[in-house]
Amino acid sequence: MSAARVRRDHPRLPASARVADAAAMALGLLAIWIIATGGGRYLVGDTIISLRSPMLALYAVASIVIVRHLRWPRPTLLDRLRGLRAAVRARPDVDTALRAFVVTRPAVLVIGFLAVVTFGVTASGFVLSRDPLVNLPARFDAGWYGGIAIDGYEWDRTFQRQQNIAFFPALPILMRVVGTPAGVGSRTLPDERRMVRALWSGVIVSLAAFFWALLYMSRLGRELVGDEAAAAATLLLAAYPFALFFSAPYTESLFLLSALGAFYHYRRGEWIAAALWGLVLGLTRPNGCFASVPLAVMGLEQVLRGSTGFRGVLQKADARALAVRLAVAAMPGIGMLLFTLYLHSLTGVWFA
């Protein structure tokens, strides 16, 4: 059943019915999560919530579904799900990205949780909570990014040990923005709780960025290699072994998203979008600045293709077109230089 047919055959549901459907689906997913992981006890604000049994969530789902369908029989929740599925399939890039995301991301989180429960926290991790699920993203450099999101950059006036000024700011900024409603910036909470909330905010940022990156991957692939190869490439990107880092509070997802966004919009001559993604790329990781080189080569190739050769580039119109392309291509490098200027203002050292 198509989305258009659902709208044609049934009246539009009121907002309260749509909220009930969304709540039923969310609680259903919660029940599945508890069944898969065993649940646990979680701190929400100052309240501890125990989620060790899926039965309460399942009872809530049944109650909501019954009341909703007695009050608004048509379209049913199943009809709406079918319409949503049809709407997604009508947009090939969304369909491709969603398939790759749904097939791989929940599995990564569940397997990671089961590994921690089975083998415990290894030397790569640090303990913020005795709950293994709450503590799941506390691994490797996640603590550095979480610390920046909570308290900003710090420098102890020495370069004898690793410090958080080595980590670029784009991801911590987004972690702080997403985590602010959860209290990441609150000085009244213990540092461990703030760090946990910052790290899970980073997981949300990484997952959202990865899904967006899959959309760009599908669009770019369809333009370059066709629909079938683009779908396969998108799935392979999500499933290759090191893709597990796209679910962690690291820079991999944001770096991938900004790189794909910059190149996708650059190819299409959408200069503002390409420049913004390029700037984010340069602020995400230090090696993001090197993307300026292939972008500049691409811009030169575009101008040469439409001119009479290198002499034609010297003509006013072509020279202006090349200048615009080179300015946009420079944005990843400019992003890196902006962070360099900030570190110089903090430390007084250009190569801090």
What's the structural blueprint in terms of helices and strands?
Elements (H helix, E strand, L loop, with lengths): L2 H7 L5 H23 L2 E5 L2 E5 L3 H17 L5 H13 L2 H28 L22 H10 L18 H10 L11 H35 L1 H13 L12 H16 L3 H14 L7 H14 L4 H4 L2 H14 L1 H17 L5
Antiparallel strand pairs: 1-2
Helix pairs in contact: 1-4, 2-3, 5-8, 5-9, 6-7, 6-8, 7-8, 8-9, 8-10, 10-11, 11-14, 11-15, 12-14
How many helices? The count is 15
Distance between the termini: 59 Å
Portion of residues in beta strands equals: under 5%
| SSE order | HHEEHHHHHHHHHHHHH
Shape: globular
Helix content: 55-70%
Uncertain runs: none
Write out the strand line-up for the largest beta sheet, numbering strands in chain order: 1-2
Give the overall pLDDT as a whole number: 87
Beta-strand segment tally? 2
Report the sheet with the most strands, covering strand number, pairing sense and barrel closure: 2 strands, antiparallel
Output the structural class. mainly alpha
Rg estimate, integer Å: 24 Å
Explain the overall architecture.
- This protein is mainly α and about 350 residues long.
- About 65% of the residues lie in helices and about 5% in strands.
- It has a two-stranded antiparallel ribbon.
- The mean pLDDT is about 85.
